[in-house]
Design the sequence.
């Protein structure tokens, strides 16, 4: 049992001990606080995340359109046989891929039948010519005879008129007058007969002349057939097909060879929206489609523009002549599929952004120190390296949304920077320094 006298003393002792413990604890805390190391404070403005940006400014650019098409020969000729005959000869170097000049011999056909036809036709012509000569001689003789008959008729008429006068004067008999009248009528009948023969001769001459003309045309046609047995190239180019073989019968109209001219063109399909911004003479860069040929390209110009659009594909067709290219452009063979980039003739002030800066048709910019996401509304794409811009970038997008000069286009958008976040822009390049001339 506890002594009642010692109970207050125990309470006092416990209280004093507790206070001493608290004082000791506060002393330790105060000591540790006073002796702790000081942490260097970083200014708030230096703790902002840094982002690489391109300072925005309007840039003078030539709009570009990319289209595709196939290289075509400007002339593709299927050379036919104009007559039916057997192939006698094929000259050397007349295989597929060989080059031929205009007028070069492609094949020789047998012309023996046509030569015989020509001999017969010429013989007929000579016979008709002989008949015509005889008829012309007869007509000349009849013309002379008619002249004599007309003079005899005039003399007989005068004799008859004289006899009639004498009869009226009772100086001649009725018999004398009738005899002179009969003589006059006989002479007139003779003149009329000669005139009729002359008319018949004229008709015969005309008929013979028409026959001679027809026969002459027949001779010319046979001579043309003989000439067509020599089949020649109508143009300079390369043999695409060589179908004839020695001993083979070739029917008239059958193909003997097919020739591609060396003059090439590209029918390039472009978006219909490009029609208002392009014209004949605009620059075109032609590049073969293929991994091995991507580094090769040729600069050409638009030669023609089709007047209508294709409503199905919503494209228009422009034609680019490749005739000026030299032998180094062998990659551009007939049928080669190519890509063409057309550059508009006028430069326009547009807002540009690297294509890598655009995601889901949105672009992130830094304006007044904060990130802002705006729609890009891309209108065109460019492949161009600008002089004076220290960026390894050739792919650009033309923005339909206008920016404010000095806006920072974030080069590589990241989830680490969100809309409205305060950042520190690091300007990697300034579009205001881009020279108007660009290396394309």
Sequence:
């Amino acid at each position: 049992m506890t002594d009642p006298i010692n109970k207050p003393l125990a309470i006092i002792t416990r209280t004093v001990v507790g206070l001493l413990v608290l004082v000791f604890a506060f002393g330790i805390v105060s000591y540790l606080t006073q002796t702790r190391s000081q942490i260097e404070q970083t200014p708030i403005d230096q703790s902002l995340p840094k982002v690489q940006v391109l300072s925005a400014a309007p840039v003078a650019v030539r709009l570009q359109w990319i289209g595709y098409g196939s290289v075509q020969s400007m002339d593709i000729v299927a050379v036919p046989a104009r007559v039916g005959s057997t192939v006698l000869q094929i000259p050397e170097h007349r295989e597929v891929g060989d080059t031929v000049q205009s007028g070069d011999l492609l094949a020789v056909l047998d012309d023996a039948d046509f030569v015989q036809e020509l001999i017969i036709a010429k013989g007929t012509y000579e016979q008709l010519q002989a008949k015509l000569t005889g008829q012309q001689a007869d007509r000349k003789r009849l013309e002379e005879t008619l002249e004599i008959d007309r003079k005899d008729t005039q003399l007989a008429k005068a004799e008859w008129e004289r006899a009639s006068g004498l009869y009226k004067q009772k100086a001649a008999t009725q018999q004398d007058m009738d005899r002179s009248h009969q003589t006059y009528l006989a002479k007139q009948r003779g003149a009329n007969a000669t005139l009729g023969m002359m008319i018949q001769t004229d008709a015969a001459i005309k008929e013979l002349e028409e026959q001679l003309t027809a026969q002459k045309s027949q001779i010319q046609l046979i001579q043309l057939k003989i000439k067509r047995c020599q089949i020649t190239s109508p143009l300079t180019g390369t043999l695409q097909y060589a179908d004839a073989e020695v001993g083979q019968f070739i029917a008239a109209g059958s193909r003997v060879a097919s020739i591609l001219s060396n003059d090439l063109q590209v029918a390039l399909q472009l978006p219909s929206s490009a029609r208002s911004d392009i014209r004949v003479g605009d620059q075109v860069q032609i590049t073969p489609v293929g991994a091995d040929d991507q580094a090769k390209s040729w600069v050409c110009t638009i030669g023609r523009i089709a007047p209508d659009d294709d409503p199905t594909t919503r494209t228009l067709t422009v034609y680019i002549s490749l005739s000026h290219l030299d032998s180094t452009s062998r990659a551009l063979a007939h049928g080669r599929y190519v890509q063409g980039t057309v550059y508009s003739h006028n430069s326009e002030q547009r807002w540009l952004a690297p294509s890598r800066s655009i995601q889901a048709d949105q672009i992130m910019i830094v304006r007044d120190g904060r990130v802002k996401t705006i729609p890009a509304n891309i209108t065109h794409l460019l492949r161009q390296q600008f002089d004076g811009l220290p960026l390894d970038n050739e792919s650009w997008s033309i923005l339909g949304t206008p920016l404010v000069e000095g806006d920072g286009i974030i080069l590589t958008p990241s989830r680490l920077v969100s809309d409205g976040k305060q950042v520190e822009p690091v300007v990697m390049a300034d579009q205001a320094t881009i020279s108007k001339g660009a290396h394309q």
